[in-house]
Design brief:
alpha+beta; 9-stranded antiparallel β-sheet
Length: 217
């Protein structure tokens, strides 16, 4: 059996320095995301979402980014799920992208809000029919007696809505408005590059001003 303590990798693919990185973290994120897509890494849009419950216990799960712009990072899910309930009680969350093949990690922290009903409707109706029916069929995070419950629910709602299922009232989008970013690039000898962007006020144009700092790895 291989010892976990002996599993090591030398990170030597790229570097991240202040002079070559963007002053706007969203632009830096967009560059890295597009490079991950171009490199055909597995599921470059997958991100870990961390939330905290009222008992202060954190929980994580993997969700898929569905949009990003100057307002923040967007994903869609069931509002009644565990993550939805935790965000209702504590709207602060963290996201993490890990592009293993590129030896890169992006971490984002900030306040989460629901997107508009119109935005949720637009995305919902762009999904495949099976996925739209699935949003009705799955009581996400609830205990069920077996997979047969999901199959029966899918059949029931499929027969009810046919080809035009509406968006469920318990399903929609969230947007995290970043307050802090961290970009990590693996480097040789564990001397990794790590840049942190922290919001430092607002400029005359109303856009965030970002303080960029290097952190020890």
């Amino acid at each position: 059996m291989t010892s976990l303590a002996d599993l090591r990798k030398s990170y030597e693919r790229a570097e991240l320095n202040e002079g070559a990185s963007h002053s706007d973290p969203m632009r830096q994120f967009e560059q890295w995301l597009q490079e991950a897509i171009a490199a055909q890494v597995p599921e470059p849009n997958a991100m870990t979402l961390a939330t905290v419950a009222s008992d202060l216990r954190p929980s994580t799960r993997v969700v898929l980014i569905k949009g990003y712009d100057e307002r923040g990072i967007t994903w869609f899910t069931n509002y009644d799920s565990r993550k939805g309930q935790e965000l209702a009680g504590n709207p602060y969350a963290a996201l993490q992208f890990h592009w293993v093949e590129l030896e890169r990690v992006v971490r984002i922290e900030g306040l989460v809000e629901k997107v508009s009903a119109e935005e949720s409707d637009t995305y919902f109706h762009s999904r495949p029919l099976d996925s739209r029916i699935g949003a009705w069929a799955s009581p996400q995070s609830e205990v069920i007696s077996g997979r047969g419950v999901l199959i029966a629910n899918a059949a029931k709602f499929g027969a009810k809505f046919l080809l035009q299922p509406p968006r469920p009232p318990h399903w929609g989008g969230y947007r995290l408005k970043p307050e802090q970013w961290q970009f990590w690039q693996g480097r040789k000898s564990r001397l990794h590059d790590r840049l942190r962007y922290t919001q430092d006020g607002t400029g005359s144009d109303g856009k965030p001003v970002w303080l960029r700092e290097r952190l020890a790895p």
